[in-house]
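Hi there, hope your week has been kind to you so far. Would you mind checking whether the tokens look sensible for this chain? I owe you a coffee for this, so here goes:
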Amino acid sequence: MPIGFINIMTFLFEKYALSFLRGAGYSLLLALVGTFFGTLIGLLCGIIMTIPISKDDKTWYKIIIHTIKFIINAYVEIFRGTPMMVQSMFIYFGASALFSINMDIMFAAFFIVSINTGAYMTETVRGGIISIDDGQFEGAKAIGMNHYQTMRYIILPQSLRNIMPQIGNNLIINIKDTCVLSVIGVVELFYASKGVAGAYYKYFETFTITMIIYFIMTFISSKILRFIESKMDGPLDYDLASTDTLAYTSEMYSIPNKRKLNDDYFHYKDI
């Protein structure tokens, strides 16, 4: 065993690089899959939570919608109000004890991360939807669109951009929080690191390596997500096109870039 903090870290990483990288790969896979399905769950539940109920609706319809909303509210409150570690043990061991279902460990891990993320994304999606101006809902209703059509063609394309930062935030949180799945035997990065640390009883050096790997994964993910957000914003310069034959606005109006706006502002101010 070499002597010195850096030398020990180098020795451990060279000897157990495969274990570290395999664990990191599982952590990243669990986070990506869990965030993807959690976002889908959040979109579905968020849309349902914003279904309007009017006095003219039939009684059976009101009962069904209120019941579904109550179930979704209970799901959101329970999974946001309890730790993922406790949820992991409750679901994995509870499925075996109560229903005699022996879940595959990886399936259980994907399922747990997905439904946990879905609870947070439900509130995120609901907030993104209600942040859109009411006039757009009224306009969609005026032209005969139902709630599903309004969500698909008008509201969700706008709210998706608003909730994109939170989707990215959940991904980064999941990369770190997958370590709690070690309690049910998932061999992710933290679990692999415990095995490496126990081999030579070098916990500080081992988990310094682990911390660096987690930071690299979250940092790169953050930069990729920022890039995607910038692409979703579109160009700074664009034309306002119109299909109205009485108003030929295409290529007549454009939004200049910020620098040109500032230059024009100070030019006219000086005049």
The radius of gyration is 25 Å.
